[in-house]
Amino acid sequence: MKKLTSLFVLFAALLFVAPVQHIVAQQPTVWVAQDPLSTTVYITKTGKKYHRDGCRSLSQSKIKTTLKEAKAKGYTPCKVCHPPQ
Ligand SMILES: [Zn+2]
After folding, report:
1. Cα(23) to centroid of ligand 1, in Å?
2. Which of 28, 31, 66, 81 has the fewest CB atoms lying closer than 10 Å?
3. Is residue 49 situated within a structural domain?
Protein backbone atom coordinates (compact mmCIF):
# COMPACT_ATOMS: atom_id res chain seq x y z
CA MET A 1 0.00 0.00 0.00
CA LYS A 2 2.94 2.32 0.58
CA LYS A 3 3.75 2.55 -3.11
CA LEU A 4 0.13 3.38 -3.94
CA THR A 5 0.12 6.18 -1.38
CA SER A 6 3.24 7.80 -2.82
CA LEU A 7 1.76 7.56 -6.31
CA PHE A 8 -1.34 9.28 -5.06
CA VAL A 9 0.71 12.06 -3.49
CA LEU A 10 2.59 12.55 -6.77
CA PHE A 11 -0.68 12.66 -8.69
CA ALA A 12 -2.16 15.22 -6.29
CA ALA A 13 0.97 17.36 -6.64
CA LEU A 14 0.62 17.27 -10.44
CA LEU A 15 -3.02 18.32 -10.20
CA PHE A 16 -1.98 21.23 -8.04
CA VAL A 17 0.80 22.41 -10.35
CA ALA A 18 -0.87 21.88 -13.74
CA PRO A 19 -3.55 24.63 -13.52
CA VAL A 20 -0.89 27.23 -12.63
CA GLN A 21 1.11 26.40 -15.74
CA HIS A 22 -2.09 26.53 -17.77
CA ILE A 23 -2.88 30.07 -16.63
CA VAL A 24 0.65 31.28 -17.45
CA ALA A 25 0.44 29.78 -20.94
CA GLN A 26 -2.95 31.35 -21.57
CA GLN A 27 -1.87 34.95 -21.08
CA PRO A 28 -3.10 36.99 -24.05
CA THR A 29 -0.75 38.62 -26.49
CA VAL A 30 -0.17 42.24 -25.56
CA TRP A 31 -0.62 44.52 -28.52
CA VAL A 32 1.74 47.42 -29.01
CA ALA A 33 -0.12 50.63 -28.27
CA GLN A 34 -1.11 52.27 -31.54
CA ASP A 35 -4.18 53.51 -33.37
CA PRO A 36 -6.16 50.26 -33.62
CA LEU A 37 -7.84 51.24 -36.90
CA SER A 38 -4.50 51.69 -38.67
CA THR A 39 -3.32 48.25 -37.53
CA THR A 40 -2.12 46.15 -40.46
CA VAL A 41 -4.21 43.05 -41.05
CA TYR A 42 -4.38 40.62 -43.97
CA ILE A 43 -7.29 39.41 -46.06
CA THR A 44 -7.51 36.70 -48.71
CA LYS A 45 -8.97 36.69 -52.24
CA THR A 46 -11.81 34.37 -51.32
CA GLY A 47 -12.29 34.53 -47.56
CA LYS A 48 -14.49 36.84 -45.54
CA LYS A 49 -12.16 37.06 -42.57
CA TYR A 50 -9.21 39.25 -41.79
CA HIS A 51 -6.06 37.88 -40.22
CA ARG A 52 -2.88 38.62 -38.36
CA ASP A 53 0.41 38.11 -40.15
CA GLY A 54 1.47 34.49 -40.09
CA CYS A 55 -2.02 32.97 -39.82
CA ARG A 56 -2.20 29.54 -41.44
CA SER A 57 -5.27 30.66 -43.42
CA LEU A 58 -3.06 33.05 -45.39
CA SER A 59 -1.27 30.29 -47.29
CA GLN A 60 -3.50 30.69 -50.38
CA SER A 61 -3.39 34.47 -50.74
CA LYS A 62 -2.37 37.36 -48.54
CA ILE A 63 -3.53 40.92 -49.18
CA LYS A 64 -2.22 43.60 -46.87
CA THR A 65 -4.79 46.11 -45.64
CA THR A 66 -5.70 47.97 -42.48
CA LEU A 67 -8.16 47.01 -39.80
CA LYS A 68 -10.30 50.01 -40.76
CA GLU A 69 -10.46 48.94 -44.43
CA ALA A 70 -11.17 45.33 -43.60
CA LYS A 71 -14.05 46.25 -41.32
CA ALA A 72 -15.44 48.74 -43.84
CA LYS A 73 -15.54 45.94 -46.43
CA GLY A 74 -17.44 43.67 -44.07
CA TYR A 75 -14.61 41.34 -43.10
CA THR A 76 -14.82 39.71 -39.69
CA PRO A 77 -11.95 38.65 -37.40
CA CYS A 78 -10.48 35.20 -37.98
CA LYS A 79 -11.24 32.66 -35.26
CA VAL A 80 -7.86 31.01 -35.68
CA CYS A 81 -5.42 33.91 -35.25
CA HIS A 82 -7.64 36.35 -33.28
CA PRO A 83 -6.71 39.68 -34.91
CA PRO A 84 -7.61 42.95 -33.16
CA GLN A 85 -11.25 44.00 -33.46
ZN1 LIG B 1 -6.46 33.94 -39.33
Report:
1. 23
2. 28
3. yes
